[in-house]
Amino acid sequence: MTRSDRIAILGGTFTPVHNGHRALLHTAFQTASQDRAGDGHVIVGLTDSAVARQTRSDPDHVAKLGEFDQRRERLDTELAKLADIYDTTYDIVRLEDTHGPAATRDDINALVVSPESKAQRRAYELNEMRAENGLPRLEIHTAPFVVAEDGTRISSTRIRNGEIDEHGRLLD
After folding, report:
1. What tens digit of pLDDT does each residue of 119-167 get?
2. Tens digit of pLDDT for each residue in 71-123?
3. Domains in the chain: how many in total?
4. What is the CATH number for 118?
5. Strand, coil or helix: what is 64?
6. Are 110 and 117 in contact (CB under 8 A)?
7. Domain-embedded: residue 146
8. What distance in Å separates the CA atoms of residue 78 and residue 60, rounded to the nearest whole number?
């Protein structure tokens, strides 16, 4: 990467990868590849189990995450498709805290988050932390919610509960 690269960052468990996650990932790749000198780059923080336990209220979710390497492999498959579409590079990093490299790197331009209030609040707190540490604030880009056939948003919980599939189709 060169200094002119535009870097977008996001994080999550991405298990299972569903259309809501794909909207987040598309937003990140679009943000990184905006018309700028240089190439775009996306950093995806994939939570380890310890961070998932800190950030999730559903203990069953953490138990069903699976091994980090398996989750990383599935996410890498999704990201490789997007990298080809947007001609943008990416890295997957292990998130061992709730802020990851977004808290310390001065070369990151944008943070991509979901519209959930918890994600919006964390983005605000992260920018406050960066400002206190003399780092530039990040642009905050919010991906849209993606809804299932029934008009309710797609979520990993709904998929685990057998209500919908990863594309939001209702299951019988």
Report:
1. 999 999 999 999 999 999 999 999 999 999 999 999 988 998 899 999 9
2. 999 999 999 999 989 889 999 999 998 889 999 999 999 999 999 999 999 99
3. 1
4. 3.40.50.620
5. coil
6. no
7. yes
8. 24
